[in-house]
């Protein structure tokens, strides 16, 4: 919880400072901030939802990406050493937010007919709805939020465990060198440290990728709710 609070406060402070004095001729800091925000806007939101619908959902999707990224990266920060998303609560809340957004988008556009469109796809013979409708219900209203939670949670937990194993082994082997006279087993600590360093870089890439995937899928689900045919 402390990690979540710290990252949330840091994100709020950063965005307030970054957008307080915007210039027509940007400074280097403004260019960097515009690059990050522009990447989310152009490559996730607008590309998936289009200009009109993208503007409607820009704020929650952008906040979702930045929050997930910030919480993911704490797994590689010394003295934090655990991702804020490696506990199910955060992933679950974000999945619920995504769930509410895509259902809201569908109801806003189609009204109650949204559920008919989702559960009874056009062009399917009526007898087959006995099979198709339960499948559509499970895939749309159950599996979407569940897979969002599991994908984010399991990736961050797996990364955390890998780093713990590598650096715990390094600690053990260093203690072996210090307290055991001439024990060459301690030299294995060099290898475990090298693996830990490599996995740290890999975990940073995973942190960025998972933030992108989660936000992209949330945008895709909204887009599917807005589509004329499901």
Automatic annotation (TrEMBL):
It is a multi-pass membrane protein. The keyword Transmembrane applies. InterPro entries: ATP_synth_F0_asu (IPR000568), ATP_synth_F0_asu_bact/mt (IPR045083), F0_ATP_A_sf (IPR035908). Pfam families: ATP-synt_A. The keyword Nucleotide-binding does not apply. It is found in: Cell membrane; Membrane. Keywords: ATP synthesis, Cell membrane, CF(0), Hydrogen ion transport, Ion transport, Membrane, Transmembrane, Transmembrane helix, Transport. The chain crosses the membrane at residues 57-80, 87-107, 127-150, 157-178, 184-202, 209-227. SUPFAM superfamilies: F1F0 ATP synthase subunit A (SSF81336). CDD domains: ATP-synt_Fo_a_6. It comes from the Bacteria. NCBIfam families: ATP_synt_6_or_A. Key component of the proton channel; it plays a direct role in the translocation of protons across the membrane. Belongs to the ATPase A chain family. This is ATP synthase subunit a. The lineage of its organism: Bacteria, Bacillati, Actinomycetota, Actinomycetes, Micrococcales.
């Amino acid at each position: 919880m402390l990690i979540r609070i710290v990252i949330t406060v840091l994100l709020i402070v950063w965005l307030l400072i970054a957008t307080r004095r915007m210039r027509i001729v940007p400074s280097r800091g403004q260019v960097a901030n515009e690059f990050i925000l522009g990447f989310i806007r152009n490559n996730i939101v607008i590309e998936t939802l289009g200009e009109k619908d993208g503007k409607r959902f820009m704020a929650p999707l952008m906040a979702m990406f930045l929050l997930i990224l910030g919480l993911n990266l704490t797994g590689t920060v010394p003295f934090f050493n655990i991702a804020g998303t490696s506990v199910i609560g955060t992933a679950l809340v974000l999945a619920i937010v995504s769930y509410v957004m895509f259902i809201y988008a569908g109801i806003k556009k189609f009204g109650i007919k949204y559920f008919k469109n989702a559960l009874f796809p056009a062009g399917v013979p009526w007898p087959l709805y006995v099979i198709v409708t339960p499948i559509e219900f499970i895939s749309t209203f159950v599996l979407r939020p569940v897979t969002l939670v599991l994908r984010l949670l399991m990736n961050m937990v797996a990364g955390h465990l890998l780093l713990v194993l590598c650096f715990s082994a390094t600690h053990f082997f260093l203690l072996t060198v210090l307290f055991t006279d001439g024990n060459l087993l301690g030299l294995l600590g060099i290898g475990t440290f090298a693996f830990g360093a490599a996995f740290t870089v890999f975990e940073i890439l995973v942190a960025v990728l998972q933030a992108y995937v989660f936000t992209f899928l949330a945008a895709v689900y909204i887009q599917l709710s807005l589509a004329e045919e499901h």
